[in-house]
Design a protein that fits this description.
Length: 160
Amino acid sequence: MEQIWAPWRMAYIGGDRGDGCVFCDKAASAEDEQNLVLLRGEKTFVLMNLYPYNNGHLLVVPKRHVGEMEDLNEEEMMELFKMTRKMVKVLGFFKPQGFNIGINIGSAAGAGIPGHFHIHIVPRWIGDTNFMPVFGDVRVISESLEGTYKKLKQSLADLF
Ligand SMILES: [Zn+2]
């Protein structure tokens, strides 16, 4: 079983996300590996959450800066869901025992980036909420995300 950890949450809570929109920046950037962007569609893209709740925590995001669900167009809606389905299959690489797939709308609901709609995909394993080691080393965290990125890219290549 893959190790499950979420020490990044604290960095997220205390961190400075800066100006501008991180999703728009990554949608426009060509540095997909650096940005942990796994897959690009026509209207949407998939990236790893820098501050995951679990190993393999992904975000499916429209390329357009849309905050409200009701402002998504039909094509974006369809592609968001298709990409979500595809990534659930890709995450099968880690043999998860379940998934949480969800949308937080508004800061009150816990949306980290409330201005830009996104769907969370969180793979789950029995007992994973009981596993919470503490790591202070940023390099360890970075390598872990990169390692997961490479595995998921391989899974994508194998499946699609
Ligand atoms: Zn945006």
